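Entry
Fold in token form

___
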Amino acid sequence: MTTPNEKTSSASDLWRLNLLIWATLMALLFASLALAYVPMGFLTPAAGIIIGFAKAGLVVFLFMELASSRALIWLAALSGLVFVAALFALTLADVLSRSG
């Protein structure tokens, strides 16, 4: 539902923005693919994680329009992140508790 105060965009503006975001995501995909084959030692996984966070940020803030959403939507997104963090923590605890 739109209110009179919201800025309306034409369909061509929305297509142009989505095409730009998609092109950026594709560039980041090919950058992560290229960096996977560059021997940088311990920096290779770090570069992949940074590129992954950049791609996730583009999807969350621009495609899902989280930046302009209500507080309840932010709370739902935050609860999803907390749930995923708990799953990772439990998996890590399981792996570290195994012997051998």
User: Anything to note?
Assistant: The chain has three helices and no strands. Residues 21 and 62 are 8 Å apart (CA to CA). The two ends are 58 Å apart (CA to CA). The mean pLDDT is 88.
